[in-house]
């Protein structure tokens, strides 16, 4: 049985950095008039992370219902896979105690929505999640698995 980690055991800063450096930095809308944070899945994830970081909490009750549904930007799959892998590294594998309002789950849901257009049910286990991701999007599952095996990819 995997013990549930405490909020202090989770590196949410690494997750925030993966979003900013891997995805936002590559966005064509960054610092442009077309940037619409209220519609952006990554901006939503960053906002939730910024909210919980100083508080030391992991859950934001009701936040899973607030994920934007109108983000139609094109995302670079490799960049999203790197950030998605970071959510899995930070996952507490809480199994039956999994909460969709956990900041890690919220970030993961935003990222999978950004690429697949839908949420993938998370069973509270990284291994089982990767199996479900493979059913939905084999290429993304392979990219995420590669990131998990090898860590972050070298900068181009």
What does this molecule look like?
This protein is 49% helix and 0% strand. It has 156 residues and is mainly α. The protein has one domain. α2 packs antiparallel against α4, α3 crosses α6 (138-150) and α5 (126-136) runs antiparallel to α6 (138-150). The longest helix has 14 residues, at 77-90. It is globular and about 40 Å long. The N and C termini lie far apart (40 Å). Residues 1-5 and 152-156 have low confidence and may be disordered.
How many structural domains can be distinguished in the coordinates? 1
Mean pLDDT: 85
Largest sheet: none
Uncertain runs: 1-5, 152-156
Looking at how many chains there are and whether they match, the oligomeric state comes to: single chain
Helix content range: 40-55%
Q: In whole angstroms, how far apart are the ends?
A: 40 Å
What overall form do the CA principal axes indicate? globular
What is the tally of beta strands? 0
SS-derived structural category: mainly alpha
Helical stretch count? 6
**Beta-strand residue fraction:** under 5%
